[in-house]
Structure formats: structure tokens, C-alpha cells
Design a protein that fits this description.
Strand content: 25-35%
Helix content: 25-40%
Number of domains: 1
Structural class: alpha/beta
Protein name: Asparaginase
Largest sheet: 6 strands, mixed
CATH architecture: 3-Layer(aba) Sandwich
Number of strands: 10
Pfam families: Asparaginase (PF00710)
Strand order of the largest sheet: 4-1-5-6-7-8
Distance between the termini: 33 Å
GO molecular function, one term: asparaginase activity
Organism: Geothermobacter ehrlichii
Length: about 160
């Protein structure tokens, strides 16, 4: 069993035409995975609906508690990309669990999005990697201790010297 904990971020954003704004809505991840016809046993657990720029240390502590209290050893966490690395670092040291954070640069509801690819990569990674904390974005697996989001390039990268 793989648990997917959803916390918001761009992956869950909905565009409101009347307001001309995006807001974090109900996560479409469960629907995306049903449409993908997965044969993996997955449970989606909504936890937060926040833009990651609004994530606080209390939110990260809530995510950490949810992971620690979960009976599942393999957990994917969908998260906004702006502070995903900080949350990954806040999850370090949880023994016996494989945790993979992922998100999207474009909302999952868009026809052209990286969401499904990133979630699928995270689901594969969580099955293959040893216990620890990882970030799965754009076909790569990163260690949150040595990773940053390059905002100018709109991608994740390993810090220089690592």
C-alpha cells in the first residue's frame, strides 16, 4: 500500500475566471490515478490545501505528524514546489519510511501539465528507494539536503559542489 498525502500547491490549483485568479482546490490526484488505470494499491489522504509559499513551520509539523502516525511505510506527498525542499528537510530523520515529495509547475487540471508525470515518477520511486526522504521532479530524484528550486529556470537542481 502506498499512501499519497496531498497538501496543496500548484498541482491542486483551480483557475477562477470570474476572479482571474488561481486558488488551491480539492486535489485531482486520485482522479488522475484512476484514469491512469494503476494496478498499485494506493490511498489518497487530503491533509492541507495551501500554496506552499503560505506553508508554516506548524504546517510542516502537521505533515511530519501525519507521516509518523501513518501505518504505511511508503508515502508520496504532493506539495507546492516553492517550499518543497524545506518540507523535505523537515521530514528528515523519520525512521523506517520512504517519503517522496512531488508537485507540478502547472496545475494538474491543465491539459499541458507535468503533474501526472511527476506523480507517476514519485509512485515508482517510493516503491524502489530505501527508507529516506526524496524529491521527484521532472524525471529526476533529489535529496532535499542538497537541492534547491531554480526559479529562473523553473526546475530543481543539485546545489553546486554536491
Amino acid at each position: 500500500m502506498i499512501e499519497i498525502i496531498t497538501t496543496g500547491g500548484t498541482i491542486d490549483k483551480v483557475y477562477f475566471d470570474a476572479k482571474s485568479t488561481y486558488e488551491v482546490g480539492e486535489s485531482p490526484v486520485g482522479e488522475l490515478l484512476r484514469e491512469a488505470n494503476l494496478t498499485v494499491d494506493i490511498r489518497v489522504r487530503p491533509l492541507l490545501r495551501k500554496d506552499s509559499l503560505e506553508m508554516t513551520d506548524a504546517d510542516r509539523a502537521q505533515i511530519r505528524r501525519a507521516v509518523q502516525e501513518s501505518a504505511t511505510e511508503r508515502i508520496v506527498i504532493t506539495h507546492g514546489t516553492d517550499t518543497m525542499v524545506e518540507t523535505g528537510r523537515a521530514l528528515l530523520g523519520i525512521a523506517g519510511k520512504t517519503l517522496v515529495l512531488t508537485g507540478a509547475m502547472l496545475p494538474a487540471r491543465f491539459r499541458s501539465t507535468d503533474a501526472l508525470f511527476n506523480v507517476a515518477s514519485a509512485i515508482t520511486a517510493v516503491q524502489l528507494l530505501p527508507p529516506g526522504v526524496y524529491i521527484a521532479m521532472h524525471g529526476r530524484i533529489f535529496d532535499p539536503r542538497t537541492t534547491r528550486k531554480n526559479v529562473a529556470e523553473n526546475r530543481f537542481e543539485t546545489l553546486a559542489g554536491d
